[in-house]
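Bit of a strange request maybe. I'm writing a small parser for structure token strings and I need a real example to test against, not something I typed by hand. Could someone generate the tokens for this chain?
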Amino acid sequence: QVQLVESGGGLVQPGGSLRLSCAASGRIDSFNDMGWYRQAPGKERELVAAITRGGSTNYKDSAKGRFTISRDNAVDTVYLQMNNLKPEDTAVYLCNGHRRGLIDMNYWGKGTLVTVSS
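Reply from user aminoacidic:
Good idea to test on real output. This should exercise your parser:
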């Protein structure tokens, strides 16, 4: 069972930056794709950014140009660089690993809280 552990969250002022990390206990290239989701209080979980095994990326519209997802297979870690943060980015950010197969499998971390406030 692969475990995903997020880190890097915290309190930041509007316009600031944070880099989130998602460390896997196994090989991240065993996943077809990995992603960062977020969930704000009272709102549904939403995809922020995703990266495939081959390195293709996609982003939520509001994250384009501000957030960058990347992966380092050598250390089995996925990152989310977040710049120009806004109060509406405040949420718990969760790492996801997705495997396609006869049954799709999704693995989740417990999340890291990002608070954007002055």
